TrEMBL record:
Keywords: 4Fe-4S, Iron, Iron-sulfur, Lyase, Metal-binding, Mitochondrion, Transit peptide, Tricarboxylic acid cycle. Its cofactor is [4Fe-4S] cluster. Residues 580-709 form the Aconitase A/isopropylmalate dehydratase small subunit swivel domain. The lineage of its organism: Eukaryota, Metazoa, Chordata, Craniata, Vertebrata. InterPro entries: Acnase/IPM_dHydase_lsu_aba_1/3, Acoase/IPM_deHydtase_lsu_aba, Aconitase/3IPM_dehydase_swvl, Aconitase/IPM_isomerase, Aconitase_4Fe-4S_BS, Aconitase_4Fe-4S_dom, Aconitase_dom2, Aconitase_mito-like. One of its GO terms (cellular component) is mitochondrion. PROSITE patterns: ACONITASE_1, ACONITASE_2. Belongs to the aconitase/IPM isomerase family. This is Aconitate hydratase, mitochondrial. The gene is aco2. Residues 540-551 have a biased composition (Polar residues).
Amino acid sequence: MLMFFCYGLQLALGHGARRLHVSAAYRAKVAMSRFEPTSFVNYEKLRSNVDIVQKRLNRPLTLSEKIVYGHLNDPHNQEIDRGRTYLRLHPDRVAMQDATAQMAMLQFISSGLPKVAVPSTIHCDHLIEAQTGGPKDLARAKEINQEVYNFLSSAGAKYGVGFWKPGSGIIHQIILENYAYPGVMLIGTDSHTPNGGGLGAICIGVGGADAVDVMAGIPWELKCPKVIGVKLTGTLSGWTSPKDVILKVAGILTVKGGTGAIVEYHGPGVDSISCTGMATICNMGAEIGATTSVFPYNHRMRTYLHKTGRGEIAALADEYANLLVPDEGCEYDQVIEINLDELKPHINGPFTPDYAHPVSQVGATAEEKGWPLEVKVGLIGSCTNSSYEDMGRAASVAKQALDKGLKCKAQFTVTPGSEQIRATIERDGYSKIFGDVGGIVLANACGPCIGQWDRRDVKKGEKNTIVTSFNRNFTARNDANPATHAFVTSPEIVTALAIAGTLNFNPETDYLTASNGEKFKLVPPTGDELPTKDFDPGQDTYQHPPSDGSSLKVDVNSQSNRLQLLEPFDKWSGNDLVDMQVLIKVKGKCTTDHISAAGPWLKFRGHLDNISNNMLIGAVNSENDAVNSIKNHLTGEYGGVPDVARHYKANGVSWVVVGDDNYGEGSSREHAALEPRHLGGRAIIVKSFARIHETNLKKQGLLPLTFSNPSDYDKIRPDDKISITGLQTFTPGKPFIAIVKHSDGSVDELELNHSFNETQIEWFQAGSALNRMKELQH
């Protein structure tokens, strides 16, 4: 019997904890379906901490506050001020996808610790490229990535980390099916970890260094989140889906409106949304910069827990239900109200996930803007929309077309979220419908959503439109083509648009032409929330670590171009940073995709030096509006960003990056922080940061700084040299002064803010958080 603990998992249960007695029948069911069941759920500890904090604060608490404050390291003395103080927390669990797990495990190995202190898992989902179809693509990935998979499998076995093999599915779907439940706190090395909020959990995306903290059993820091309330009224119906809720919210809040906040959904409309639908909404909350999103415990979650073999947890959640919902009269920092009766189907894009349009209007807007109307490819699935219900609703649309003798005019791909979903939709006939309408079922993996797509129907630079049920649509993200106009919407709308072959189609009002020439309208989609029969678990793809892996070895070949053991970064010299060269002044949006591209670069995620060759190659240089073309001020010649950075480092020249608003939005990938540090960067100075990236930079010993006056961005010139003064008196809340020397001899003094606390200042002084952890072990 595999074991899992809800709170303080590495510790013995506290007084008053309840033990779940799992029946023999349930044990057998679990063994067959390769779950790792929860054997202990310590809601008493959660309640105790919440009671302590509530007495101190003397006010009603939001659900987010209950779960977050319920995991405080010191509930009696922790200073709590939403948006200001840093909380020290003990999350219950860690999950890592294979692209980020490589660096996370390399850092954990460097820590010298013998075993993880909390239950942790690795999920192989990012390294499988979509090319011809599921089985062949999976076989090819296993062959190409064998070295990496062996490393992750052996590292997991040695250090006590569970390993979900390639083909098992996307990390967030596996978490929802197995590990998330109401009241749990989980961190994951992927920005869409908040998916688990659909099951009443606080699930937060982080970088690998944060995961190392939690796996080491030391308190994890998080700035006390603000709480944005989204009140839902009315009922979802017709073509409107859960995806439309978050598409609407993204249009309201924009890509940075949720930064530093948890988005908490509440109100009578919640009960009209399935558990997996709530997960969809929470998943894409990453696109508004939110720390995470969460829904209150209700009967939809109870049903999902029962259907996924966790009825005992549902019973316990029922008993502690008042702990798993917000208090009456709790206050939110901001409230948004959405009437689901009035909400219409939406489609967001292109190039940014917050550019929201009603489906009824996007065709006209596309004509006005000159966007290609023809839909080249429709893609459904991904971690955002690959549930049984999603597949059922999309299949119901496809079946209507088939019944009228039609197939998709666009190419059509389907990405199941997990092996369990793949096996179940195959058993229940959905996969056959997708195939018959012209679709290809891809591997249970991220695939095109993260750029793992060997697309061949258009040439690079060819203007075209794709529609997806994914979460993110940054320039060139899906297919490495900057001319691809990508739109995100629900799976059922994707299916309808793929059948129609054009953006200028509103399934609520427009007609299609059947093969016999008759005009017909698609009726609104339907689909079972959960399968009538039990889920089919499919193949067993989980490897549990041995009870003692200390004798096992993890081999990293020194000649490998995929894996590289880490060397510690240098400590702070004790002096101010003087005359740092501006490497690049970035213009406009700069996501982690711009800083450290995915797609073909994913193969190097375990080799810091090799992957550093993609640093900032997608960022736009303000000097010439070009990408990956900057001036080397030592030679006077133009070159690629990584090449110039390496030249500066080889010649002892420290450098700084200057950026715009919401710098580092998007993925949690800490490579976007590791690479600048590795190539000699010292500071990143911008108008504002996305939360995860700012933390990742701090963890690696860099200085993420913001202009006190955002208009000072305009004073920086591409050939400037910048000194940052005041490092000897580096203290929380105290700004730095930057001395900016221009090539014409003039000088500007600018004030730069930072958000470092005392602990984070120690990271900087030690050279990185990992260096500081090692110092504390001695």
